[in-house]
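[SOLVED] Need 3D model of a two-part complex

Original post:
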Amino acid sequence: MNERPSILDGLDPEGRVRESLLETLGIGRTELLLAALAGAATWTAGHASHAAGAGLTENDTRILRFDLQLEYLQATMYTQALRLGHLRPAVRDAARVVGAHEWAHAHALKTILGRRAVPPGFFDYHGVTEDEHAFLRPAVAFEDLTAALLKYQAIRLDSRAVLAAAISLHSVEARHAAWLRRIAGVLPTLTAFDRPASQAKMRDLILSTHFVAEDPTTGARRAPGFTG
Amino acid sequence: MRNRRPVIAAVLTAATMVSAAALAVVALHGRGAPAAGDSAPGGTRMAHLSADAAALAPPAKPAFTVATPRPLRLSSRVSMWAPVILPTVARARPRAHAHIVARISTRTPEGTTNILLALGVRRDAMHRLWVHVRLPILPTNTTGWVRRTALGGYRFVRTRLVVDLHALEATLYQGRKALFHAPVGVGAIGTATPVGRFYIRDRLTRYASPFYGPIAFGTSARSPVLTDWPAGGYIGIHGTNEPKLIPGRISHGCIRLRNADIRRLATLMPIGTPVAIESGR
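Solution:
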């Protein structure tokens, strides 16, 4: 399943990030597949039905909702890695700053989307946040991909005001990518011109990581059987 | 005098060159730029660039802006839990062949997702991840190690509930701040509420059983006495249809609150909240 072309191919010609990401995540483990499928359903449903936001076109709402979910995915990963406490000081310092940026992006997107904002999802990083080595690779990949995605989306936005805001995020995501690449020992940039990554391909790649998980059912409408 | 003439000439030449360079810098910055059509190539270029800049459309005001955030805090007063996504076993040590402490199912007796409070993470010699967890079994306070692959994603909570069996009070804290405080009914003599460290597993609502009040929280605590109770003898935190008995030692081990209090607690206490039941003496 990992042989098909991916947006990482364009961003990571040597295949280092992609290979490491997929290897780290152990894609293909049967026990994770069911949870991932359930999560995929949630993810897809979250982006399939929505109404245009106040002041936003249907098209722009669709783009910003996707970005919001992606920001949640990244921000939660940084927060979780920090809380688990297995990062060296250099990585920890970067994660504190970059993670705070991602939460700020999420907050801004949530504010402009208002009632159309998607709620934060439930994520399972499958061991990535417990280990610095495993953490850095998807962190780099997601920063790369977010910059590439924003490049794809920017020219599709209807509103110039939304475009002006989006490009202010784009350059920051590119800086995050360069920062984390440097820490991970990967060249900050490989090409003179970056290629965009489409939203559909980005969604497929995110689903292939199995990071989007089913929300556990912790509530029920049934009579308790406790001792009383 | 003969020797000084070349020096003076050199100084004058240098001064002339510096002046010319200064004029060129001024021109490049647009001050005293030559008129269009001037024969100076740099001047023409600058004039064109200035004209292009002036002809640009006005900028759009960004639809949103992002304030400069503070770096994320390294908070230590956070607890972590994870759902059980695969039936598994808890072992005494983080090793594949260590003694089995308990078998863990994916569901609670209430039909909700079984969750475990995570206390730490470690890798074994084979580089496999193990999670140290608090177990919902007897004896009280038992912990064990489960494979990370059996668990779903982590969730974090900042709250903790403390139940004082001596003072007959429950207090919900966030950090050092008390968010909630209320009198409670606890286990009677012979069916005492177990003392120890537990966590909130689930929340039951909209059932037709006035005995438990409007809301009941399931905990990981089990009665050491009522071990043959149909649903496993788990201790709940719930409302009541006999509020006059609170505070008191009146239950089979459960922690009872007045209905107004359990409703308020339900707005403040998330699933996964650690529960410390203390003797208070």
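Edit: Chain B is about 20% helix and 35% strand.
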